[in-house]
């Protein structure tokens, strides 16, 4: 890899590292394909919003095309091969990586959050009682608890029971390897994790963070210290120091990227294909775009999720997916699943600066049609917002 990398090369390196240099497989998608995607991205972020479909399904669809969502759920939660933890936000992670997160669990246990301290003050022994209940009864969701308490407000107004479970989960005294109706089922690590994982040595925090940075570099292909530390939510200052050491040892290569202010690091497995033929709608929580500053540097694509923005203040829409075509993000689409009516609704569609709507629309129409079929929706209805809406509707009519 040369010490200077063009902006176009950086885009292709990043997309290839995420699996977009490969064409989608033909035929039936199974656990081998899921494993390959997981090997590329390292973890998959979870989110409760299901306006289109649960977000963890979308990175696999973007890379594989249509597949059986129940099969993915069985792969992630039904085989004992993955667990949940705070990787990049709430994430599903290969279970063999669990030792790399123990230092994070220990740090949280040593410094209880204020809300935990308040809970312990209000209800002494309550958290320990939850732990004992799961020890006696087996894996439980919050609704299974004998004393779950009531939700205290909208959104994240968790009950006392949920607060207790989450604190035990954050500190590693409980783990999650399965779900029921998308609710976490909490269990003791000694029951839920494979014996080989339980007996694996615990790396020192510096060694764990070093390994996570190497994995971040492999999954990103190329990135600044900020990019690579963000992938697994590692402390920036220590990560920047470790990355400089990794570069001096030859484990990573430090390069200058055209238009980037900060130096970047390239993983030795990174490749820059001469061309890309990708076509994908990306989840707001896809690793390609989840670090918004990096997405702007790579693709000149300014992206902010507007789920929590009041509707009159939204620029693009409620649940907007970037559209990847080749090695560029060429547009963005607001998508909703109207399951009761069997309709994939497209309230708005927009091209990026410099893109021609009539040239983007046919490829987007094919991808939206593929997504509708995958979701079991019979029709697609396009709204009027955005310069891409009318060309998209015309292209959909051409597809029939």
Q: Helices and strands in order, then pairings?
A:
Blueprint: E1 4-5, H1 7-17, H2 31-41, E2 44-45, H3 58-64, H4 69-77, E3 82-87, E4 89-94, H5 102-110, H6 114-122, H7 126-137, H8 160-170, E5 175-180, E6 183-187, H9 189-192, H10 195-198, H11 205-220, E7 222-224, H12 225-231, H13 236-249, E8 253-257, E9 264-266, E10 279-281, H14 292-299, E11 320-325, E12 328-338, E13 343-351, H15 357-374, E14 379-385, H16 389-399
Parallel strand pairs: 1-8, 13-14
Antiparallel strand pairs: 2-4, 3-4, 5-6, 7-9, 8-9, 10-11, 11-12, 12-13
Helix pairs in contact: 7-8, 11-12, 12-13, 15-16
Question: Mind explaining what this structure looks like?
Answer:
- This protein is an alpha+beta fold.
- About 40% of the residues lie in helices and about 20% in strands.
- Helix 7 (about 125-135) crosses helix 8 and helix 11 (about 205-220) packs across helix 12.
- It is globular.
């Amino acid at each position: 890899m040369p010490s200077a990398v063009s902006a176009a090369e950086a885009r292709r390196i990043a997309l290839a590292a995420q699996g977009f240099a490969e064409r989608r497989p033909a035929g039936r998608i199974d656990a081998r394909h899921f494993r390959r995607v997981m090997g590329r991205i390292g973890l998959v972020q979870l989110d409760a919003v299901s306006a289109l479909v649960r977000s963890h399904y979308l990175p696999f669809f973007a890379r594989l095309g249509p597949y059986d969502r129940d099969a993915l759920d069985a792969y992630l939660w039904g085989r004992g091969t993955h667990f949940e933890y705070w990787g990049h936000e709430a994430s599903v992670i290969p279970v063999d990586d669990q030792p790399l997160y123990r230092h994070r669990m220990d740090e949280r246990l040593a410094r209880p959050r204020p809300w935990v301290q308040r809970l312990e003050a209000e209800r002494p022994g309550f958290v320990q009682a939850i732990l004992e209940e799961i020890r006696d009864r087996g894996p439980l969701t919050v609704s299974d608890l004998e004393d779950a308490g009531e939700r205290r407000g909208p959104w994240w107004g968790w009950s006392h029971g949920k607060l207790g479970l989450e604190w035990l989960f954050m500190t590693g005294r409980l783990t999650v390897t399965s779900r029921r109706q998308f609710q976490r089922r909490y269990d003791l690590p000694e029951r839920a994790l494979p014996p080989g994982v339980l007996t694996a040595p615990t790396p020192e925090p510096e060694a764990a963070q070093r390994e996570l940075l190497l994995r971040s570099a492999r999954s990103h292909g190329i990135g600044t210290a900020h990019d690579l530390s963000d992938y697994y939510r590692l402390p920036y200052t220590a990560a920047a120091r470790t990355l400089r050491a990794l570069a001096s040892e030859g484990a990573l290569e430090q390069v200058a990227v055209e238009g980037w202010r900060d130096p970047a690091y390239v993983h030795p497995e990174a490749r820059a294909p001469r061309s890309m033929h990708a076509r994908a709608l990306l989840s707001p929580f896809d690793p390609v775009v989840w670090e918004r500053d990096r997405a702007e540097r790579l693709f000149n694509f300014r992206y902010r999720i507007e789920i929590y923005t009041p509707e009159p203040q939204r620029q693009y829409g409620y649940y907007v997916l970037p559209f990847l075509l080749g090695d560029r993000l060429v547009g963005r689409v607001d998508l909703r699943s109207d399951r009761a009516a069997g309709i994939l609704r497209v309230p708005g569609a927009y091209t990026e600066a410099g893109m021609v709507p009539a040239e983007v629309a046919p490829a987007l129409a094919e991808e939206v049609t593929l997504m509708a079929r995958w979701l079991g929706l019979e029709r697609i209805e396009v709204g009027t917002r955005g310069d891409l809406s009318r060309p998209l509707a015309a292209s959909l009519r051409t597809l029939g």
